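From the methods appendix. Each design record in this collection lists the tokenized structure first, followed by the designed amino acid sequence. Records were kept in a plain field format so they could be parsed without special tools. The example shown here is representative of the layout used throughout.

RECORD:
FOLD TOKENS (267 positions):
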């Protein structure tokens, strides 16, 4: 049996409260999650339940309070160098042009044909003629495309995405989702995709994992998305199987979203 690309084993993350240093808050408790090589897994859950926390643990940016992470069967120590990340907020360097942003990671690695590879990836995300623009000269969708090129140019074996398209308008978002699926289909990397949008999770994924509301969030449901590929994210939403899966997952998620919402009101 091949090892999972990413394996979270009994992950618990407890934070010291920012307001009151005597208070502790356990965001996620005893989370197990395996992602096979080439598998596209989405994690959904209410706001504040610990989705980004889990992604940061997978990225090696946050050491869990207990539990362990394995990457292709090896214990993760420090930053996960097999993974590329795409975060919700823009992570482009404003003082660098699009092409210079895309090639930055390769330059740091001392890759000789960094510029040529960066140009290739800018073209792949539809920004062939825009390499010399600065981030402020690009639309939100174009900045996301640049971030995507910046992540993919490094050819990571695992791709970690934290609500990458949530700030985009729905049309741009669906275009980007379809493009990500096309790029993924070519290279079949393991993807951990975080979203609070159930439609997006179902449309994109092989498997959807539902996290409970915090404190002590953990997976409470897991659904295999047996809808054939290739998929068009806009069209697939109209199919009977999609609607059926949506109902089944929402049955589990609804109560957690309400709990999360009540907690926010109480806080
Ligand atoms: N560094 C931190 N210090 C204290 N609390 C934190 C820290 N990071 C996250 N939390 C808390 O942990 C919970 C989960 O946060 P997060 O993973 O960002 O949720 P999500 O991404 O699901 O919206 C939240 O209640 C948040 O306030
Ligand atoms: Mg988050």
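DESIGN:
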């Amino acid at each position: 049996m091949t090892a999972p690309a990413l394996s979270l084993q009994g992950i618990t993350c407890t934070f010291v409260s920012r307001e009151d240093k005597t208070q502790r808050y356990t965001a996620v408790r005893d989370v197990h999650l395996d992602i096979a090589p080439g598998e596209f897994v989405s994690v959904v859950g209410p706001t504040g339940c610990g989705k980004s926390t889990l992604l940061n643990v997978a990225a090696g940016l946050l050491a869990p309070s207990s539990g362990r992470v394995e990457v292709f069967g090896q214990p993760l120590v420090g930053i996960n160098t097999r993974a590329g990340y795409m975060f919700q907020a823009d992570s482009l360097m404003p003082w660098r042009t699009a092409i210079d942003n895309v090639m930055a990671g390769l330059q740091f690695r001392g890759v000789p044909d960094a510029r040529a590879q960066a140009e290739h990836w800018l073209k792949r995300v539809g920004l062939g003629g825009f390499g010399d623009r600065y981030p402020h000269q690009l639309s939100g969708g174009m900045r996301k495309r640049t971030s995507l090129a910046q992540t993919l140019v490094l050819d990571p074996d695992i791709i970690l995405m934290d609500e990458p398209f949530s700030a985009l308008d729905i049309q741009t978002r669906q275009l980007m989702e379809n493009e990500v699926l096309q790029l993924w289909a070519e290279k079949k990397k393991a993807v951990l995709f975080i979203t609070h949008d159930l439609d997006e999770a179902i449309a994109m994924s092989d498997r959807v994992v539902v996290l409970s509301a915090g404190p002590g969030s953990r997976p409470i449901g897991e659904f295999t998305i047996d809808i054939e590929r290739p998929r068009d994210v806009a069209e697939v939403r109209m199919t009977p199987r999609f609607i059926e899966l949506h109902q089944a997952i929402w049955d589990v998620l609804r109560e957690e979203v309400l709990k999360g919402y009540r907690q926010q009101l109480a806080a």
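APPENDIX NOTE: The chain has one domain: 6-82+156-266.
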